[in-house]
Structure prediction request, 172 residues.
Amino acid sequence: MDTHGGVPTRQPSYEGVWRFTAAAVDVSVPQARHAVRDLLVRQGVPLHEEIMDGLLLIVSELVTNAVRHAALLSPEIAVEVAIGPEWIRVSVEDNHPYRPKALEADYGQTGGRGLLLVREVAQEAGGACDVEHTATGGKIIWAALPLTPMAPGPGGAPHPAVTSPRTDPSAP
Prediction:
């Protein structure tokens, strides 16, 4: 239990970390999106509507990427949701060793910009995203967003937020 001015305080009941696995197949994309949305509603997370929309788009993009690009070496993926008092982080883990990079916007291409979209949505909300290797040779792609939209910092840039998914869930 935390203290505030010597008085014990309780963590908000919505804080925690949840993880589920899914087959790396197309039907897992809407299932993951619905599972994350249902979790947030069930936990009573005070998530601003525009952040919720961005977060669900991120979940869809990350799971889609894992299904399309990692399924051969990773027939199962893991989705993790970590919620702190002021932020939320989603990550998708697979066992494929390739570490993707966000492509630049090439309007002649019909695909390949999912990670770019994830990065832009996260940054616009005042959050962050990254790709990290796992100890088993796979990867985790994560995005962290504040629960409420961030006010722009100096020069209109968003304030920096979470920089790693492996920190204590109670502190970004």
About this structure: The chain has three helices and seven strands. The chain has a mean pLDDT of 83.
